[in-house]
Amino acid sequence: MKRFILYFICAAGLVFNLSAQPKREIRGVWITVNYALDWPNHPLRSKADIERQKEDFDRMLDKLKDAGINMVFMQTRLRGEVIYPSKIEPANRYFNQKSSSVQYDPLAYAVDACRQRGMECHAWMVVYPVGSGKKRATVPGRYKDMAKSFRGTLYLDPGNPKTIDYLVSLVKEVVSGYDIDGIHFDYVRYPDSSGKFPDGDTYRRYSGGEDKADWRRGNINRFVYAVYDTVKSLKPWVQVSSSVIGMYDTIPDVKNRHWTALHSVYQDPADWIRKGKHDFIVPMMYYADNLFFPFVDDWIARCNGRPVVPGLGLYQMDAGEFGWESNVLLEQIRYSRDRPTQGNVFFRARYLLENKKGICDEISSRFYSTPAILPALTWLSRSLPEAPGQIYASSKNRDSLSLEWNKVTDADTPDKTIFYNVYRSGTFPVDTNDPQNLIAARLVNNSCEIPIDNRTESGYYYVVTSYDRYHNESEASAPVYFGTGALMINSNTCNTPVPGDESLVP
Fold it and tell me: Of 284, 288, 415, 489, which alpha carbon lies 20 to 30 A from 470's?
């Protein structure tokens, strides 16, 4: 049989199957709306701008999909502004729909666009900073008694019980109103140099005399507990995660003059995962060498069986930052994969889209050359979905192969959402544990189109699995065999029985 490389174009997008990679891995990216750093390229002033924003977003997602990204953190709440029609907070200026003739929900569009490409969409929400805090600035009424001005910025006071109620109401609005896959928190901490944060009044009123540092950490923890329980009560499959300071605490024998989560900003992610109040954490590991590697290992030691996904700072390649060469980041990806982490998230999207210093080409070819499904959320559900039944293969125009199977409807969620993964192998049986056999992941539809070349002789066995919102995967369907060239048995259809499995006869 001649050597044959097949390009698969399925409902989840373009997939190049060139080398073995992990089968389960988070490959994420932050899409930043603040200051339009990643998207949108055009403000919203007319109906034409809606289409431009959608087209720009689609092009961005297509490139990210081609690069191997399978999880998008979509900035949904900025600093007191949102990108969706909210009853609680105003729209960001890039989506300020002043004309009643303009009807558009950017978050809803983002969720659907990600899903159609086989990518999860997590709503990224900035927690405590809410805008300018300059002298004489008017505190918006919605923040009455909750906001503190500190170093030119307004912050919601974590020590005020009203803050928790307000933030939980925002999360409810997003989780209830959108079919998101996760809620992702940023800046769930006190501000930099927070020793001088002006919360003396709330400390005196609510602390009960507790040590101030412990009280501040407790304030953050209470918010995290409340929001996690709220999300799970609404939609238990929606994941809760946070981007946290990259160094949890100092490490003996490691010189570290940088700030830490635990002591500098009163953030205690180890507590959250120890008590089961986060589904995964994303430490912002925007450092190199001895400030990166030992701290990754430290997070792993504290993860309590939940995924740790190091966030990598692509922006550090900028001349105005550290001017890193791409090999610094590539080594960090390799180290993350060699250790028991569950992937990486990249800050931010534009550096991949612009292929800064060739970083996107390197990542996609060296690390993401095959698709990946996501780590199973076994602490939420261990129930496996039903396997798809018979899979059918047909070629009606001799240029493409159509795979189709019956839908599965037994998902362990109220909306019964099920996705599909497609595998193929030149040998029987198809090993679904082999990452090289995975050719398409998280398909929305129960069908897949594959280009073929009948001038070339090749034959493959195909199977399909079901995949639920908890990332649990079913057993494989019954296989089907399809051949091209001289191996074609019939010019229109080829549902060929596999030896020992007569059920494949159509």
Answer: 284
Tell me, what's the pLDDT at 133?
61
User: What stretches in the chain show pLDDT beneath 50?
Assistant: 1-19, 100, 489-506
Which burial class, exposed, middle or buried, applies to 198 when counting CB atoms under 10 A from its CB (0-12, 13-18, 19+)? exposed
What CATH number is attached to the domain comprising 295? 3.20.20.80
Between the alpha carbon of residue 406 and those of residues 403, 441, 446, 464, 476, the distances in Å are 11, 17, 7, 10, 13
Which pLDDT does position 501 carry in this prediction?
A: 40
Token couple for 234: 């609404």
Residues 359 and 401 in one domain: no
Query: Taking a C-beta distance cutoff of 8 angstroms, is the pair 385, 418 a contact?
Result: yes
User: Which residue reads 């399925």 in tokens?
Assistant: 10
Span 217-235, pLDDT tens digits: 999 999 999 999 999 999 9
Instruction: Say yes or no: 432 and 317 in one domain.
Output: no
DSSP letters for 291-303: GTHHHHHHHHHT-
Entry pTM: 0.92
Q: 470: domain CATH number?
A: 2.60.40.10
Identify whether residues 137 and 219 lie together within a single domain.
Answer: yes
Contact 280, 306 (CB under 8 A): yes
Q: At residue 251, what is the residue type?
A: I
